[in-house]
Amino acid sequence: MRLTLFRALLLGVLLGTLVVPAGDLRALAQAQQPPPPQPDKQQKKPEQAGEYAISVEVPLVAVDVVATDHSGNFITGLKKENFRILEDGVAQTITNFAPTEAPITMVLLIEFSRLGYEYFAYKAREGAYDFLNQLNKDDWVALETFDMRPRIEVDFTRDKHEVKQTLARLAFPGFTEANLFDAVIDTLDRLQDVKGKKSIFILASGYDTFSKHTLDQALKRLQQTDVTIFAVGVGRSFFEYFDNRGGVSGPGRLGYYQAENQLRQFCLKTGGRAWFPRFDGELPSIFREVAASLRNQYSLGYIPTNKARDGKFRKIKVELVGPDGSPLVVHDQKGKNVKYVVYAREGYTPPKGGVGD
Questions:
Q1: Could you tell me which residues come within 8 angstroms of residue 145 by beta carbon, excluding any fewer than 6 positions away?
Q2: Which helix (H) or strand (E) covers residue 231, if one does?
Q3: Residue 35 contacts residue 156 (beta carbons within 8 Å)
Q4: How far out from the chain centre does Cα 44 lie?
Q5: Cα–Cα distance, 61 to 205 (Å, whole number)
Q6: What is the pTM of this model?
Q7: 240 in helix, strand or coil?
Q8: What dihedral angle (degrees, nearest 10) is formed by the CA atoms of 289, 277, 20, 182?
Q9: What does the pLDDT read at residue 335?
Q10: Is residue 55 part of a domain?
Q11: How far apart are CA 151 and CA 145, in angstroms?
């Protein structure tokens, strides 16, 4: 997309004065049905006359984990005994373990607003279109856009051609506002009852201009989900172009760094990753890495030793260990020790309540 000199000057003013106001919005879009049908819940044993019981819910905490070496290569072939989970520093017993082989269930959440003279919308739409080529025929994908409010453009489907057709029809954004926080919370709410591995792939600038929710509220909502978030910031090349030409003021520069940090925090807290490419040539490898991360996840589960339903955040730490319980040692092809990184969500907040609630 080519920008005229007039637009470039106006954009410099925009980036230099951008603030994050607060305001009310209309009700969000109605919830859609979840993707693939889920297995029926196990039926409870009928109570006989004279019998009574007290039922206490003991939730299973699910944690999806990805491990890579310092070069980004995935560490495969790990077993259950190679993982240790700590909750608030206390070791937990892993009851569920499996390398993830299930189809991907993903929401493509793209910024489609007039912010940045439609440049961000253009880059997000084109990126989403190209990313679809990384999905397999059994993967589920939904398309959601946001400006002043989030919109479900395509509900969960395995038909990637339908999603591409819809992206091609997204021509002219209607509003300048990009309400990122509202869109993230709305998408998490829609995914709440979807079973299995699920993720959100955000393609956006990271700016939030008019959400009724705050960043703190969005981050707290992330503590209640098992959804993994990945993000690609679509504004770095745009920002650097004008910044290198003196077109961005101090407040504008600070606003952009905050926008990137918001995307980074969404991913960090959920065990995902964020990228901020400068060149289009970086995108194909990033898209491959997003899909590969989901296909190389290990699914772990445990019943927490802390049974309190106090609604307080609990920190999770996942470690790789050897047969003797010491830190796992990973070698490269030459037999040299290599450093590795473990990606997992930072923690969770259990529901608040007591017996009988």
A1: 109, 110, 111, 112, 151, 153, 170
A2: strand 228-233
A3: yes
A4: 35
A5: 32
A6: 0.82
A7: helix
A8: -20
A9: 85
A10: no
A11: 5
Shared domain check, 334 and 311: yes
β strands within 12-158, DSSP E: 61-69, 83-87, 90-92, 94-99, 105-111, 140-146, 150-157
Assigned token pair, 333: 């092809």
Q: Is 123 exposed, middle or buried (0-12, 13-18, 19+ CB in 10 A)?
A: buried
Let me know if residue 227 belongs to a domain.
yes
The structural domain count of the chain equals 2
Residue 70 to residues 67, 292, 330, 331, 338: CA-CA distances in angstroms?
A: 10, 16, 11, 11, 7
C-alpha distances out from residue 206 to 46, 99, 256, 265, 325, Å: 52, 32, 8, 11, 41
- Alpha-carbon radius of gyration of the chain: 22
Print the domain residue range for 94. Answer: 61-100+297-348
The model's pLDDT over 179-208, given as tens digits with 9 standing for 90+, comes to 999 999 999 999 998 887 899 999 999 999
How far, in Å, are 119, 182, 257 from residue 348 at the CA level? 36, 20, 27
User: Distance (Å, rounded) from C-alpha 206 to C-alpha 222?
Assistant: 16
Cα distances (Å, whole numbers) of residue 68 to 65, 99, 288, 339: 10, 14, 15, 9
Confidence of residue 96 (pLDDT cuts 50, 70, 90): very high
Rounded to whole angstroms, how far apart are CA atoms 210 and 196? 33
Is 88 part of a structural domain of the chain?
yes
Whether 276 and 328 map to the same domain: the answer is no
- Decide if 1 contacts 114 (C-beta within 8 A): no
Counting other chains too, the contacts that 353-356 makes at CB distance below 8 Å and 24 or more residues apart are 353/309, 354/309, 355/54, 355/56, 356/54
Alpha-carbon distances of 124 from 151, 206, 232, 280, rounded to whole Å: 15, 11, 9, 12
